[in-house]
Amino acid sequence: MIRPGLVFALWCAIAAVVVMNDLVGDTWIAANLSVRAVEWYKALVPIPYVVMVAIIHARRTTGSQWFEAALLAALLWSTSTMLASFTYSRVTYEEGAEAFFDRLGFWWGAPYPLLVLALFAAPLLAGWVMAKRR
Fold first, then answer.
1. What's the mean pLDDT when you consider all of the chain?
2. Of the four, 27, 56, 90, 124, which is 20 to 30 A from 4 by CA?
3. DSSP structure string for 94-123
4. Ordered DSSP codes for 18-61
5. What pLDDT score does 9 carry?
6. For the whole model, what pTM was predicted?
7. What are 100-125's pLDDT values in tens digits?
8. 75 — alpha (psi -120 to 50), left (phi > 0) or beta?
């Protein structure tokens, strides 16, 4: 069963964790680590939380429409979390869109696309696993 309210509530939890993680990474951790290490920290730390939230979503949306529910979550979580992250960097550091899209440049080793990929893949994989278990 597709539950848009659940998708939104879980996204709010993910967005809060990602933004707070970016804040901690940019303030406290950035004083002690290199820029590259901070970028890896900001990308990798939220991934276990995203997987946990995806499992919660999959358990609540099992049934005949599990794929539609997982796809809705995957599309909304990945795009809207990128928008929240962009808004955070724009408001906090007055960065433009070009600086944000620079973070998405996976070809030079930027880790941020791993977080976006996890936000997209986690609901689909968790939904598939829950559907196979039933």
1. 90
2. 90
3. ---HHHHHHHT-GGGT-SHHHHHHHHHHHH
4. HHHHHHHIIIIITTTS-HHHHHHHHHHTHHHHHHHHHHHHHHHS
5. 93
6. 0.88
7. 877 776 556 678 889 999 999 999 99
8. alpha
